[in-house]
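step=encode ok
step=design start
structure_in=
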């Protein structure tokens, strides 16, 4: 991967100065918009049919990965998470029939609500890259992005204040995958971190990150529940939407946006929508691997080690106050 990244860096340096300047400003978080849609990327020659099972495709070439790593250069390093797709760096996103209704990137028939990527993780990615290899043939799948500044502009000062307080318990037991507590699967009986949603660096254990996933968060007071609902509604009002087409790549700043996806119709016949995803983090850990690895599966311990508030909070089915 280190060599791959060196070669991709040469490709990045071959981009125009104006393009590199924009990407660098976006990486620094200083562009007016926190997302970027890149068009007219190279074709994917001999792209096989979209897979219909499993978690990854065998394409026989690495052109898509090369494009993604080249554009990632100013943004940080590709990042793998032990629990995400067996720790792979590049994720093939396509609909799977058995997950059509799941809250999952493999779904199709459900609306994937607003969220920040890996909202529950102490080290979520700073940026999310979605390279579209094949568009949804029916053109129904719509990706939405809302800037956090546009959300807060629609909220009252007291709602913003609520969202900055550590009043939101992460529903760790409801995450997909195999996160652990004391070496075994997390259950609803386990204590869990209670964090702010909006950036706040004065709360112990908080890290100034924006973390949002109403479907997997339990507000611990009625006012906190109302503020989270207001933020979700504000995200809908201020949404920017688009349909990913082949040869495009969407980059979103995960530090200052939420994103969502509309339902669409999957045929499971090789023609379905197919994205390739990579998560990118700025934080440098001195790695010379050319990527970051996030191997810890003990989320509660990781948050406790950071001084976050850990409490036993009952899970609520409707996402309202427990
Ligand atoms: Fe996502």
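sequence_out=
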């Amino acid at each position: 991967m280190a060599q791959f990244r060196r070669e991709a860096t040469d490709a990045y340096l071959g981009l125009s100065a104006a393009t590199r300047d924009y990407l660098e400003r976006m990486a620094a978080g200083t562009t007016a918009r926190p997302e970027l849609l890149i068009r007219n990327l190279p074709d994917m020659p001999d792209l096989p049919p979209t897979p219909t099972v499993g978690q990854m495709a065998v394409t026989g070439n690495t052109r898509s990965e090369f494009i993604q790593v080249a554009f990632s250069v100013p943004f940080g390093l590709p990042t793998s998470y032990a629990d995400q797709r067996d720790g792979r760096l590049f994720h093939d996103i396509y609909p799977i029939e058995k997950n059509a209704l799941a809250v999952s990137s493999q779904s199709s028939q459900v609306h994937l609500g607003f969220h920040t990527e890996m909202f529950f993780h102490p080290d979520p990615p700073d940026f999310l890259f979605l390279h579209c290899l094949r568009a949804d043939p029916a053109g129904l799948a719509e990706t939405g992005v809302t800037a956090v500044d546009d959300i807060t502009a629609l909220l009252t000062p007291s709602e913003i204040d609520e969202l900055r307080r550590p009043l939101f318990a992460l529903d760790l037991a409801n995450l997909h995958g195999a996160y652990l507590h004391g070496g075994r699967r997390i259950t609803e009986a386990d204590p869990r971190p209670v964090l702010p949603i909006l950036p706040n660096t004065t709360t112990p254990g908080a890290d100034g990150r924006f973390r949002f996933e109403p479907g997997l968060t339990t507000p611990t007071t009625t006012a906190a529940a109302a503020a989270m609902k207001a933020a979700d509604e504000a995200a809908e009002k201020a949404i920017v939407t688009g349909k990913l087409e082949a040869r495009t790549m969407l980059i979103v700043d995960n530090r200052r946006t939420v994103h969502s996806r509309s339902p669409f119709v999957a045929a499971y016949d090789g023609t379905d929508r197919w994205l390739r995803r990579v998560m990118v983090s700025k934080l440098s850990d001195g790695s010379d691997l050319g990527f970051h690895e996030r191997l810890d599966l003990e989320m509660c311990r990781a948050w406790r080690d950071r001084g976050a508030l850990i409490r036993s909070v009952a899970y609520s089915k409707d996402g309202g106050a427990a």
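step=design ok
step=annotate ok -> The pocket of fe (ii) ion is lined by residues 115, 117, 259 (CB under 6 Å).
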